[in-house]
Design a protein that fits this description.
The chain is α+β, with helices and mostly antiparallel strands and 107 residues long. It is built from three helices and five strands.
Amino acid sequence: MLEIHSIDGRNCPVITCDMCGECLDHVGAAAVVFQNFSPPGSKLRLLHVHKGSIDGKTCHREAEALLGTDGAAVGWQEMRAFLTDLISNAGFPPADALDYESRHSPE
């Protein structure tokens, strides 16, 4: 889930786990689970989750079970790849994101 959290007086966008509600604050430990193999033009449900079984969390497995009810096909993508694809599909290529970050970072 995408949320805005107030952190040290600033409004900060964060991604929280759709299963446990905790912040996904390490891209290598997060994934996006989604319905898979649907007809072209379909809008697929997705869940942001903790990847695998990390620190005893089973969010990834729970999301696959939830979306895979009735034998539906489920896929997943690491959060790093998902975010790269997302910004690119929004017309903001990753190279432009790096340039933007370098020009807007606090000194």
